[in-house]
Design a protein that fits this description.
single chain, alpha/beta, 4 helices, globular, disordered C terminus
């Protein structure tokens, strides 16, 4: 996950929105401590420029909980919302990609 955010930053894509398809992840391998460490690293990267909004589509309740935990850890740094439904994720991302000035409360 850190490598993904580092690549986005290095390639200059961090201001763009991103749809993340995590629907095929069956068995999550990250612990809560690892999520915390990743969140700290992403927060540090934020100092180098704002990340665009991220919509994460997940396929299980476990991944929904873990992804929401991660989203809450990086809230205020990266606008990220987690979805069970792909259409809802696309609609949210489309809305927030065009209106980047929307408040975080509109999630």
């Amino acid at each position: 996950v850190i490598g993904h955010f580092e690549t986005i930053r290095r390639e200059g894509y961090q201001g763009y929105s991103e749809f993340i398809d995590a629907s095929n992840i069956v068995d999550p391998t990250l612990s809560v401590a690892e999520l915390w460490n990743i969140a700290v690293a992403v927060r540090k990267m934020h100092r180098m420029g704002n990340f665009g909004p991220r919509a994460v589509w997940v396929g299980s309740d476990t991944n929904y909980v873990l992804a929401n935990m991660f989203a809450s850890l990086i809230s205020g740094f990266v606008r990220m919302r987690v979805f069970h439904d792909r259409v809802a994720a696309d609609e949210w991302l489309d809305k927030h990609s065009r209106n980047r000035s929307a408040s975080p409360d509109s999630r």
